[in-house]
Amino acid sequence: MTQDAKKTVLYNTHVALGAKMTPFAGYHMPLRYTSDKEEHNNVRQNVGMFDVSHMGEFFVKGKGALDLIQRISTNDATKLYDGKAQYSCLTNNHGGIIDDLIVYRLSEEEYMLVVNASNIEKDWNWIVKQNTFEAELSNESDNMSLLAIQGPNALKALQSLTNISLEKIAYYSFVKAKFAGVEDVIISATGYTGSGGVELYLPNRSAAHVWDSIMEAGEPFKLLPTGLAARDTLRLEMGFCLYGNDIDDFTSPLEGGLGWITKLNKNFVASDIIKAQKENGILRKLVAFEMLEKGIPRSGYEILNSEGEVIGKVTSGTMSPILNKGIGMGYVKIGFAKVDSELLIQVRNKQLKAKIVKPPFVKI
After folding, report:
1. 105 touches 115 (CB < 8 A)
2. Which domains does the chain have, with CATH numbers?
3. pLDDT in tens, 236-260
4. Cβ contacts of residue 116 below 8 Å, gap of 6+?
């Protein structure tokens, strides 16, 4: 394990729980505690808790806050109201994706941007550079912890720790409330698993106490600590993009299937380029596929047409613990991107049949 990687404040907690730690996005993170399959299935059936404190949190304040966010992000932040969150992405000057993120409106002149851990420095530098609106920026990534409690039993497992009715927090909405005795915890009905639940943003000093409180309160509901390996298979079953795999600086939102968060009726960085793509058509597209033959697609494997010609590449792939079959995502030439089209995946020395499907792979 790399010595210079950061540790979340819960590092010792994970080690004490027997987690296998791994370097990820510059941090020592828990890969698994028991088995990937057990943790995955437990989130789908009961409830799991993830330490995702490696994620980045930026605060944007002042009269120019909204104007800055509108300039850097593809979605329309004017649609937000206090207590509402929005999925969006940052584009570079060429129309590629700098990062995907969630924008939280705390008040009319204060927003929180939650970005991927591996992109914190890159995103921060980009946003600072674009800030011609005199918005007040602060990077609180090193001061905040983030816990994701996910699964059908998540709200029941947590309800005893707060007076707020968790069931009343609508999807992609949030409240600031007292939680496990800690004031002003952001309780957000968001997540990366598709199985429901919440994410909690809190100060580092309170993270161990809140983690332990949730472990105790969640025991009757079969709550288990859950690692990054299960987080990846859970998000892939839902067809959620992973930055650095499925989207990056060289993929446009339209190519990556993120047209739904790309509002071309407003001006943002490289919106003219993306408008031209919309009008002229894109040359490749991110598709979801499931294997028709036994085999596991992996990132980097070639995607072929029925004649054996290379038409694309796998960006994410795994064996779905729920479906018990190989699933994946990858870019293919636009002429081969239609749902129900059959493809071939080059798995080592075999060409295995697969079929394009509409995500999510697993219907919850």
Report:
1. no
2. 6-55+143-237 (3.30.1360.120), 56-128 (3.30.70.1400), 283-357 (2.40.30.110)
3. 999 999 999 999 999 999 999 999 9
4. 25, 55, 56, 99, 100, 101, 123, 243, 244
